[in-house]
Amino acid sequence: MGFFDKIKQGLKKTKDSMSQGLNEVFSNFRKVDEELLDELLEVLIMADVGLETSEKIIEDLRKKAKLEKIENADELRKALCDSIADKMDSEDGNALKTETKPSVILVVGVNGVGKTTTIGKLASRFKNEGKEVLICAADTFRAAAIEQLEIWADRCGCDMVKHKEGSDPAAVVFDALQAAKARGKDIVICDTAGRLHNKTHLMDELAKITRIIDRELPDADKEVLLVLDATTGQNAVIQARDFKQIMGVTGVVLTKLDGTAKGGVTVSVREITGVPVKFIGVGEQIDDLQPFDARAFAKELIGE
Q1: pTM for this predicted structure
Q2: Is residue 169 within 8 Å of 177, Cβ to Cβ?
């Protein structure tokens, strides 16, 4: 299955939830007036785009209607698609920056969002690209997390550094970085324990890990990927905002998009936090973690 087919399949629930409202608005198109814009605003909010972001999109359409003289439903649909794509696009691009050897990817997020699975799928993707990957099991609070990572490491053929349950996570990261340098690894992917964003001492621990990475690999490319569960809707936006303030998040992975009608939260996360979405999870298979393409996502969402 190709990329666009996966996007189509992964966004089906969200698109289905939006299509009835959008089709009603477009089929009754007469002109772009406040009544029509209010109807579009309601459709966007119902798709969990969020009030703040939805209002910005509607303001874009209001301006475009005047400047470009939108006169039919097809032009309005294209303008809506363009506005959503622009809200999600990043000036620096949505790709991971992993040019140095080694590069480090620190994966963070609360419990249950799919961090371990995301790490496994990322490792598999890099391995298929010919990269040498080392997985760091820095979630030492949960024995199951270490065991799950071992399964993924074996499946991908990747080395893994671990300590016993209850060890200092920062010490695991230190050892992993030393091993990566000694073994000539291209990428180190570090798991972390599921953090509740309001637990200050746990966030302090993540900051300690970050300091070790900066000290041991000061010139390395470093990504801090925040994994969010799309099924939680606007709660994901709150998590993203809080993690960004404390951790300097560089990218977001939105998982479980195929299982929710709240896919509009993807737009909201990017617009409100300024953090680019770098991957989306659209299924359970190993290749269902897809690099994010803002334009393809918007087109499928709106049905342009």
Answers
A1: 0.90
A2: no
